[in-house]
Specification:
three-stranded mixed β-sheet; alpha+beta; globular; three-stranded antiparallel β-sheet
Length: 386
């Protein structure tokens, strides 16, 4: 009689070996995937920095200096930032990233301005985004973060002139968060987009008039300003065509942007089409829920009227705007001290934390807390022009 041998299955040792091999392979696979994603983000960041470098070189060739982006905050990284990322007058003894970031954004890359209130879809889109973010904030476990606290208060809405009417004479961004003249306000033809919102916050508002000269937009036949007020120019710019609009876009400052504009094609968050070049990255600023749910970005876009020390959280709003993000989805940084013969643009890298380049690293290394903060710069990617 023939004897048949049957195997009952894997032994315990064999199962353990198989599981160990599978876990190892999974770990290697995830590491490779992460490394691949990181490489893609790094390459995308380097590409965008190179594009901005080309724009800045073109700007320098045209004007003899790099963009003189006005200070929207103090460069003192010790000043404590409120829940909206705006510096207060209080000094923090420690090293806090939110405070450091507020100082780094003293010369921002992003440009912000009021939404086009004549656009019927704006209020409904912003309202829908606000409701979605309130739902997210309630269900998320990030309720201790500034973004969730801000959103949960009362949501947010498009900017209304009545929110800052009493502060029209103030030019301080902390007090009148209406126009953020970041780097893109100089690399893009600002007259084509920053006049979209309420014209009542143009004439007489230092937040606008301190950084813009109506005489720059002139009639080529007479050499005189196209209009007598900013409100008139804003109304003319809202038209799809017209002599005033065409003349404004043909003015020297606006038209010069066309030289380097191809470098910004497809990389600007919330970007539009200027001189035939589509700068947008495919995501409209008013539809950017992903940004508002990002703890590193949200409090940069949610604003509140009132003083930095006592913002009115019941009337918080968001502005329209444009920016360029790095490959990891983080904000880029710009630094150009007067007389603006040199500048630096950089990404904080994968960890999305960096430290001010104007702080002496040798002196900072003597302080243990600062030495740790200097470590944030290890994965920075930057371009410098001198």
């Amino acid at each position: 009689m023939r004897r048949v041998h049957q195997r009952g299955g894997f032994t315990l040792v064999e199962l353990i070996v198989v599981i160990a091999v599978m876990v190892t392979l999974m770990g290697v696979s995830f590491s490779l995937m992460h490394a691949g994603d990181d490489a893609v983000a790094r390459n995308r960041t380097l590409n965008r920095l190179q594009r901005l470098q080309n724009c800045l070189s073109g700007y320098f060739a045209a004007f003899g200096h790099y963009p003189a982006v006005p200070l929207h905050a103090s460069r003192d990284w010790r000043l404590k930032a409120n829940n909206y990322g705006i510096q207060t007058d209080s000094v923090d003894a420690g090293v806090d990233w939110l405070n450091v970031r507020a100082a780094l954004l003293a010369q921002p890359v992003a440009v912000e301005y009021p939404f086009d209130c004549k656009d019927a879809g704006v209020k409904s889109d912003v309202s829908a985004a606000s409701k979605a973010d309130i739902t997210w904030a309630k269900s998320s476990k990030k309720t201790g973060e500034a973004v969730a606290r801000a959103v949960l208060t009362n949501g947010y809405k498009p900017f209304a002139a009545s929110m800052v009417k009493s502060s029209s004479g103030a030019g301080d961004w902390r007090e009148v968060q209406v126009y953020r003249h970041g780097l893109l306000a100089y690399l893009l033809p600002r007259v084509a987009f920053m006049l979209r919102g309420e014209s009542s916050v143009l004439d007489g508002f230092a937040a606008w008039t301190a950084h813009n000269d109506l005489a720059e937009y002139y009639d080529p036949d007479t050499g005189k300003a196209l209009t007598s007020t900013w409100a008139e120019l804003a109304d003319a710019m809202r038209l799809d065509s017209g002599r005033i609009r065409e003349a404004a876009l043909a003015s020297s400052a606006a038209a010069t942007c066309a030289r380097w504009l191809p470098n910004l094609e497809g990389v600007v968050r919330g970007g539009g089409t200027f001189f035939g070049i589509d700068t947008g990255d495919g995501m409209a600023f008013r539809e950017r829920e992903r940004d508002l749910r990002d703890a590193q970005l949200a409090d940069l876009h949610i604003h509140a009227p009132g003083s930095a020390a006592s913002p009115n959280a019941k009337s918080q709003y968001i502005l329209d705007g444009m920016t360029v993000l790095d490959g990891w989805g983080g904000e880029l940084y710009y630094y150009s001290p007067a007389p603006h013969r040199a500048c630096r643009v950089w990404s904080a890298g994968r960890d999305r934390r960096t430290f001010p380049p104007w702080v002496d690293p040798k002196a900072a290394a003597k302080d243990a807390a600062l030495a740790v903060a200097l470590g944030w710069t290890c994965d920075d990617l930057a371009v410098e022009l001198k």
